[in-house]
Amino acid sequence: MYGSAFIKRRLAAQRALAEQQSSQESVSLPKGAADLFRTSKYSDITIVCGGQNWDLHKSIICTQSDFFAKACNWLSRQAKPARIDLCDDDDSAAVAAMLYFFYHGDYRVSDDHSDDFLPMVLHVKLYVMADKYFNERLRRAAFAKLAVDMYLGWKTNAFADAVAEIYAPHSGKHDELRELAVMRTRGHASSLFRERKRYAGFRAMAWSTPEFAADVARALATGGGIKGVPVKAKA
Question: Where is the BTB domain positioned along the sequence (predicted)?
Answer without folding.
Answer: 43-111
